[in-house]
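Help needed: design a sequence for this.
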């Protein structure tokens, strides 16, 4: 709060907000919106969760002070007097239907949900929740709960393993449990019936691959099946086109990006480095900003516009400035080498260099 207040007092946050507003839009990534009771039971990591009250307060604020984007249509790149925001959700958790959508509908905020077709209607559909549940018991038994970063570090380590090795490790951890996992009713994904109902009510659905494998960690042939197969499955189940794609874990490579483009998607979204979506952004590398509870609340747990501007808008602005700087240096290098090319002033450029040396 102190640092955010300092940046606002010195005009940094207002300047960053103006820069973002003039250049483009921020695409927000949410995962889960939970009640306090559900939050106490979930195995999802804190970085994936926003409390229901916080999400409602944030959308109320955004509806009054920002402009929502509907990703079914091309954004209007004209400068706006309001900050442009797009609201997206990853994974397709059940609370997207029971909590997030009613709140978004109340505040007329268009939603995009990126679903995983082979994981619909499942309890503990993704390996991180299964790993957290097993780790949570072992840490409780070993008295290591005081290390809040241990579980997050372990999850990051597991991400670096192949799917087979990762599943073997998690199965081993789960087999050591003394009790059964009991929060499956909280950690589950939407059914196809729920998805279809939300679509009828105006929610847009995109693909998050077939099984949520990190695409850069598997063979490209398998990645192509994940990318194209998920689109076909979604279109088959919902009876419409699936034009939007989100890379699991935000990881992308040149080959993966080209596969997404070949599969027929119109837009694809990252989720690693925060940034701003501008008119010049690669349509298959649109940056997003991940949002969770501590990106939105003050020390009392209440929604804070100041914290939102610091944790989300300022982060996006820094990503935008880094991109601008990178593109500027690339143009300088390109112009320099062009000046050395024969037939393009290259000889004079070389002579100038010789003189200066």
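Sure. Designed sequence:
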């Amino acid at each position: 709060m102190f640092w955010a207040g300092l940046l606002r007092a010195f005009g940094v946050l207002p300047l960053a907000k103006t820069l973002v507003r003039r250049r483009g839009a921020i695409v927000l990534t949410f995962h889960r919106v939970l009640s306090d009771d559900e939050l106490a039971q979930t195995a999802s990591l804190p970085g994936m969760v926003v409390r229901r009250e916080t999400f409602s307060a944030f959308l109320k604020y955004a509806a009054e002070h920002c402009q929502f984007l509907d990703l079914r249509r091309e954004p209007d790149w004209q400068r706006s007097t309001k900050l442009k925001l797009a609201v997206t959700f990853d994974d397709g958790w059940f609370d997207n239907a029971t909590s997030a959508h009613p709140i978004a509908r109340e505040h007329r905020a268009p939603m995009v949900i990126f679903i995983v077709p082979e994981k619909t209607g499942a309890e503990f559909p993704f390996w991180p929740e299964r790993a957290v549940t097993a780790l949570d018991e072992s840490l409780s038994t070993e008295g290591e709960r005081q290390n809040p970063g241990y579980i997050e570090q372990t999850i990051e380590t597991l991400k670096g393993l192949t799917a087979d090795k990762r599943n073997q490790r998690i199965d081993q951890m789960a087999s050591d449990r003394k009790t059964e996992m009991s929060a499956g009713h909280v950690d589950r994904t939407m059914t196809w019936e729920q998805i279809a109902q939300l679509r009828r009510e105006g929610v847009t659905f995109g693909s998050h691959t077939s099984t949520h494998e990190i695409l850069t960690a598997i063979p490209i042939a398998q990645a192509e099946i994940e990318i194209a197969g998920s689109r076909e499955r979604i279109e088959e189940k919902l009876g419409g086109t699936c034009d939007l794609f989100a890379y699991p874990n935000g990881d992308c490579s040149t080959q993966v990006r080209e596969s997404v483009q070949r599969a027929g998607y119109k837009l694809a979204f990252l989720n690693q480095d925060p940034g701003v979506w501008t008119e010049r952004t690669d349509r298959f590398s649109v940056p997003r900003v991940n949002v969770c509870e501590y990106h939105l609340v003050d020390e009392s747990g209440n929604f804070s516009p100041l914290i939102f501007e610091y944790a989300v808008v300022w982060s996006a602005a820094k990503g935008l400035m880094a991109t601008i700087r990178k593109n500027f240096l690339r143009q300088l290098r390109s112009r320099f080498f062009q000046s050395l090319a024969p037939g393009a002033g290259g000889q004079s450029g070389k002579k100038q260099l010789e003189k200066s040396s």
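The first strand starts at residue 24 and ends at 30.
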